[in-house]
Records
---
Amino acid sequence: MNTRLLIVCSETIPSNAGDGRNAFLLAKTLAAKGYGVTLLAYCYNHQHKGFENVDGVKIVRARYLAASQLGRFISRVLLLISALRYGAGQRRWLLFGAFPGYLWIWVLGVVMGRSIIFRSTLVGFDDLPSLQGRSSTCKGILRMAKNRLAGYYALNSAFEKSFRLDFPSTPIFCSPQGVDISLFGGKEESLEALRLTHGIPNDTFVFIMVGHMIERKGFPEIAQWLASVSKPFVLLHVGNHGAAKAEGVDFHAERITAVTREVKNILGDRCILVEPTASIASYYAAAHAFIMASYAEGFPPNTLNEAMASGLPVICRRIAGADDYLENNQNAILFSTRDEFLAGVETLMTDAELKKRLSVQSREFACARLSIDTISSSLMSFWDEVDVTGR
């Protein structure tokens, strides 16, 4: 069994980027199982340490110089050098998505004879058709690199099918990304106490959404839809509201600020904004239901996994991958249109029996399908098998 592993992603903790948080969670879980894990990522915020050991995971950060095209090129070189240095002792490399310079790392791994698994992160961004559509050069390199893959990690059947069309013989590990079940749900603290702590009204229905306030996440559209709900409610949004500069790179700060302003204009006091926090579990616990209105995700995303582990009823847009894991009115309420969404909201706010049943089903589903402990073991068993067969 190969017990040393290099994981490479765009960024990781203390950044709140979902893929980076999940990469660290996987690394931490594997480290606890006795694997030697190095996590390599960019350092967008130059205040973060270039090297540290957290929960048994060796984290290496290469500086990202975003100010110029030359700087971005140098950043890729720095990441490549770090991969060469810190990946030399790791037989297995797991690449988390199409981060800047991922093809360089991929080719380096192929040249070094590493066992490589690639994991797509977002439909429309780094699923196979999206990657191949970038340029003819990129397409050629991808074909060479993918023919040398040990395997492909597909979060859902949409990723799996798109990859399988071009590479029918490559082994595929199809599984959701995991969540630490122990961190969510099962809290004894009363809702009243939690809401008092977080300044959330006790006498109204609380919906929670988590993530950047951007169009891809369903904003401001979802605020416009909620504005027509006549019953009292609060939308609790935990995430980025324009402070992307805090991570060192101003990718979307101005647009996030504008969308946030629009949402606040629409909902007023019915919208409570909370910046990213390490206490996210207590905000889930203080809510009645979770809304996921994204138009594209690497489904299921961290936020949905966390909400279900918290035992929250879920209202989710029916996007690629959703039907793999969610069944309407069984463990979630699915919607495609405004009317379906509002009907789901109305039902959750008035049907206490359904709300309770969905809550129980969410938690049970998370425990059965979303545990990072189980998923990490399955991934390594898959890797053991494909390495033995000589992929």
Note: The domain at 4-178+371-389 is CATH 3.40.50.2000 (Rossmann fold).
---
Amino acid sequence: MIYYELKVESDEGEIVIDKEKMITSAEVMFDTINNDTKTKSNAILARMTICGNITNGKDTSVNEQAIKLSEWARDLKNDTTYRNVTLTVKTDEYTILRIYEIPDMFVCDYKESFKSSDVNDAYTFELKLTQSENKLKEIKTYQ
């Protein structure tokens, strides 16, 4: 089993998603904008996609964090749109596989899906983030 922790920081506070099984998948991608490029380009974006469950049994704090993600997705103020994001991926509860610290990320897309309650993972979210341009050198990656 993989464990994930997501922390989104701004001057207005934090969004922390660290409940077991709330995040179901995470993807970090360094995307060359023009795939037809013939030489290494500076036109590279850091992107992150986080998918997860909105509910975790009777724990209402999970839903509260999803609401905060939704609010961030709709935030248009320059001073709070860009936030520092830390994603921690663990192979078990204590063993860290990777930590990504990516400053100045913003929400490209946020989606919530609600299916019939008899379906596993009936209430889910998908968060797509992109880093502000020209910030690649500020990304930190740890094992």
Note: Helices lie at 60-73, 78-81.
